[in-house]
């Protein structure tokens, strides 16, 4: 059995805005994502929110700003936690890692749908490490 069971996710926010200040002469565009995570226990389930934003509306070097926020629903099975890692470890590491590919896909689809720039694919990364760095 699995210690953390992924039940479902919902999209809480999708936004894309073209940056009118973008200078198209910039051939090199570097988009560094920022991350936000929160969690709560509700009706016996763990709800984990993961929000990822890229781009800016202020920089002349970035063509757009995009944000995706998801909420994942998980069930923790403590009797299957044989190594006694605990709920917090599974939320901070596993739950965000499960949600991140969905965020990557949505960001890629939204940026590609702009029909002005190529779709942007977020890099495969250790999301829990990135969250630690940003805190």
UniProtKB/TrEMBL annotation:
SUPFAM superfamilies: SecB-like. InterPro entries: SecB (IPR003708), SecB-like_sf (IPR035958). Belongs to the SecB family. This is Protein-export chaperone SecB.
